[in-house]
Amino acid sequence: MQLNKELATKFYKSMLLIRKFEEKSIELYSDQKIRGFLHLYIGEEAVAVGTMHALTPDDSVIATYREHGQALARGISANTIMAEMYGKVEGCARGRGGSMHLYDKEKRFYGGNAIVGGGLPLAVGMALADKMMKHNRVTIVFFGDGAVAEGEFHESMNLAALWKLPILFVCENNQYAMGTALRYSESQTNLAQKAESYKIPAHQVDGMNVLAVAEASEHAVEKIRNAEGPVFLECLTYRFRAHSMFDAELYRKKEEVEQWKSKDPLSIFKTKLEDTGIWNEIDAEKIELEVEDIVRKSVEFAENGTLEPLEDLEKFVYSTGAQDE
Amino acid sequence: MSKKNETTFREAVREAMRQAMINDERVFLMGEDVGRYGGCFAVSKGLLEEFGDERIIDTPLSESAFTGAGIGAAINGMRPIVEIMTVNFSLLALDQIMNNAATILHMSGGQFNVPLVIRMSTGAGKQLGAQHSHSLEGWYAHIPGLKVLTPATVQDAYDMVHLALADPDPVLIFENSLLYNNKGLLDTKALALPIGKASIAKEGQHITVLAYGINVLKSLEAATILEKEGIDIEVIDLRTLRPLDDETIMKSVSKTHHVIIVDEGWKTGSIAAEIMARINEQAFFDLDAPMQRVCSAEVPMPYSKHLEQSALPQTEKIVDVALSLMDRS
Lengths: 325, 329
Known about the structure:
The complex is a heterodimer of chains A (325) and B (329).
Chain A: H1 5-30, H2 45-53, E1 60-64, H3 68-74, H4 78-85, E2 109-113, H5 119-132, E3 139-144, H6 151-162, E4 167-173, E5 176-177, E6 180-181, H7 182-185, H8 191-196, E7 202-206, H9 210-225, E8 231-236, H10 254-261, H11 265-276, H12 284-303
Parallel strand pairs in A: 1-2, 1-3, 3-4, 4-8, 7-8
Antiparallel strand pairs in A: 5-6
Helix pairs in contact in A: 1-2, 1-3, 1-11, 1-12, 2-3, 2-9, 4-12, 5-6
Chain B: E1 4-8, H1 9-23, E2 27-31, H2 47-51, E3 56-58, H3 63-75, E4 79-86, H4 87-90, H5 94-101, H6 104-107, E5 117-122, H7 137-140, E6 147-149, H8 154-166, E7 171-176, E8 183-187, E9 199-202, E10 207-211, H9 214-228, E11 233-237, E12 240-242, H10 246-256, E13 259-266, H11 271-283, E14 292-296, H12 305-311, H13 315-325
Parallel strand pairs in B: 2-3, 2-4, 4-5, 5-7, 6-7, 10-11, 10-13, 13-14
Antiparallel strand pairs in B: 1-8, 6-12, 9-11
Helix pairs in contact in B: 1-8, 3-5, 9-13, 10-11
């Protein structure tokens, strides 16, 4: 991948935005502005940023409950994401979804699915519809290593391969299904091999390296657009923070976390830019200020948002108003 | 000009799907053995030959994935009909039905509706044992975001496919498998009674009998028997279990002052219980006697014929309960 100033700025800014947005979210959670579950993506930013780079606005995205990164990288405004986490009407799902259920029709962002593996069959259907209607679209679906143990994973792999559907499967292997390490949950810990057994081309990718992810995604998307069927990327990554805000992290050693932190996707990207001399070309200080501004404004936006009136409680259960009661 | 033809319940469902597929290229059928086999109950027989394997899709035994795929395709512009062979297997797709189909419109703040139709056979009575004899339509009616249809007549077998396809939200159609061979008159040009409207299958003065699916027919049989006893029951075909047609129910209760609910679900936590609760809330002072229920016995369905038949609502039981309610036993 030809790295230039423009691309470097885009990747760096996008990853930094996710990082800063989530660091702010932690504060807001402690302040009880954000409630419910809050699953942080910190450490995994390169996966969302690298994969999204390969998509066009017409492609479709399905993500998991740990999806702030995907939502931001897809271009959903930080304002509406923050407002969603505040439970405000101005949120990207009108405060009905929360952190785990971000949606944006304009960005073709089909949620935040909070049942592990539950988004995979949806991706099969999205892609099936595109194939039937002859749309040259790609559906990208994110899921963690934990999802690989679910039946829905295997059913979906089989259908996608059998019907040669235009899907990019992105397995974010962050080594843990909540608190259970991969070695305690899978007889075969090479997850790409599982996809290969369904005759899906599959690759393991360094998920801490945004360029590696972006390159692998571009190749994959090209094949998918050529109607060659689905592709599977296993992005090896790590979450630096706890599973959610309720996790005491009893299941992993601090040394392990520190070891992975030495591969921080922002740091290694910066080093790469320094090595190639591009770091001097991009205005890192300006990027940082811009990102901080976006985050600050998102908080203002959310703070100033409005609460849905209680009389609308039962809206959006059916499309055509309150048909049932 | 309306023209009525005699046809079977099975053919009515098939013809409805056929017409829908002719009229709307977004409609397709997907499920286990719907194509080459012709459908487990032969409902889709011949459709593969007519529409090809891109629109009549045989799926692997992956209820969760193909039901979820139906949801995804619906969100993305298609009008899928997913056939789950029987309600028993729908439990393998329950995550998709409940956590996705029923919730996505709401979770997305109204951005993404799911115009999906799921058809499945339901019911006991063929000695298929405990795992192949469920009647869980009342259970599905518990879930906000879904609509639950239970055709009893050939006309509804046809109309409900069209009603469901025209609906912007997920609709589940429960076809009692004992009804497929039933014959009746079908008018393909008739104006369908909408989702959420019950119909009066037989007018009467003394008791309101509320039923759906196959039990509408058993209730009508009971009506004939009871007529000889001088008891004139009103049989209401609920048609839709969610939303329930409270208006029609209460209107009938206010006329007859007596209620029997016939439901193949187990009594505990049944749709029959829900209907009783609603009548209690809305029409308690119209009642002259405690409401009665004819439900399935609280056992996993036994294989042995006499036990199975005894576990199910039957015409004779409806008659007995009606006689007792009118104090003529």
